[in-house]
Design brief:
eight-stranded antiparallel β-sheet; HIT family, subunit A; globular; alpha+beta; two-stranded antiparallel ribbon
Amino acid sequence: MSRSELVAQPPDATDNPYWDQLKKIIRPPPKETEVQTEQFFYALPAKRSGKDQSNREDGGRRKSWKLRKFADGTPSDDTDDKSVNTNNPPVRNTQDGCWFCLGNPQVAKHLVVTIATQAYLAMPRGPLVKDHLLILTVGHYQNWMACPVSVRKDIDSYKTSLRAMYKAEGKAMVAFERNFKTHHYQLQVIPVPFCVAAEVKKAFLTLSQTLEGSPCRLESLPKSAALEDFSRPGVPYFYVELPTGEKLFNTIEKDHLASSDINFGRAVLASPEILNCPSRVNWRECLEEEAIETELTTELRKKFSKFEFT
């Protein structure tokens, strides 16, 4: 007997009266998606509802996030996190429609400063400050943990070069990775004056608890720690490298993703204690004409050429 005959429904069978309810139960929840905009290097935050109080408790006080170490890939907290994909995310060298993949014709190539073998340097649209740069992967990798050793080597080389470039101008480097609402690795690199470098840690720690749209409560990582010790593939997080060499990090709760603002890192650095430029938090308010962007990128190429490692 064929398979079709085995699974065929008898002509006098009655349809399942609960099928509609079953479909609602087994239908998977919608996935967090990246929002493509006309801005080359950013995603847009999800639209907030005035009724959304998921990030507040007890009279407006912010939830508490506890940094917990993972052991052998098993979360040590007591939350039911079965919906999080614990498998390694699929990685392809390029991905159609990704505005960060250099092979995509929609990429604003006039913003690219320099390209190495595994990573490249670019200026974002609507930069926070003049020397605001992005380190991105040439291949399509979602975050740092998905990057192979060879890719990480180029990323680290860019960081070393940029740190030296900023130092020559009396500035210190702050870098952060926003691993939510994006599907391609991007490290934001922003210089701050030496005179305020020591205040960056306090600003991130404080505003991660009090600023509306903060994705999580940041905490210090041990000096010898790696991100893999505190997270796993598929888990969103926010990560900061401070001028002092210290690192801040925490994962983002799945029910807090929608209210997390992609401009959080910019907001912290734009605060009065650091760069004091609150009008530049939103990249849309910092856009320039393409001719000016091209001119700024050309200046950055010339400046960075003295510190180029490739």
